[in-house]
Amino acid sequence: MVQVRVLGVALDSVGQHIILLKPVGGAQAVGQVLAIVVGEQEATSALIALSGETPPRPLSHDLMKTLLDTVGAHVERVDVTRIDQGTFYAEITLGIAAGSFVLDARPSDSVALALRAEAPLFVADDVLEAEGIPAAMVESGGNVEETPSGEQSLDEFKDFLEHVDPEDFRS
């Protein structure tokens, strides 16, 4: 497993939201970024967590974190474990009174929850090797501005919040 951080959230060339995961430290997979396509709501949730902003009403991932805190559980780590026919798979390891418990989860939800819980993120070596793209393609592409904290431009995020329609979040 390679520890990663969220480099940012961006749009790909066809307008799909992607979360960008970049390895931290070590020489392994240096210069690689893993791009995972996510839904608009998950992208928004990740952006809110990255910016440190608080939404006017809790989003699903805020609720998940509150539920875990309420029952005395915590997120120990999130692992992107594999890819199968273009679909990424992840696991959330929870720490509970009885020990650790591993849950199968979508990477989009897992990353958004890990950001809120300040839990470490990892990607399987073979997933990063098979699906990683050169970081230079992302960092020079103009869609994501890397800052020391790995956040997307705060001004762009604030503009998004000003123009978001609450109907976008109704089920």
UniProtKB/TrEMBL annotation:
Transmembrane segments: none
Limits of the BFN domain: 1-135
Pfam families named among the record's database cross-references: BFN_dom
GO molecular function, one term: nuclease activity
PANTHER family per the UniProt record, alphabetical: VON HIPPEL-LINDAU DISEASE TUMOR SUPPRESSOR (PTHR15160:SF1), VON HIPPEL-LINDAU PROTEIN (PTHR15160)
Name by which UniProt lists this protein: Bifunctional nuclease family protein
Species whose genome carries this gene: Cryobacterium suzukii
Lineage, uppermost ranks: Bacteria, Bacillati, Actinomycetota, Actinomycetes, Micrococcales
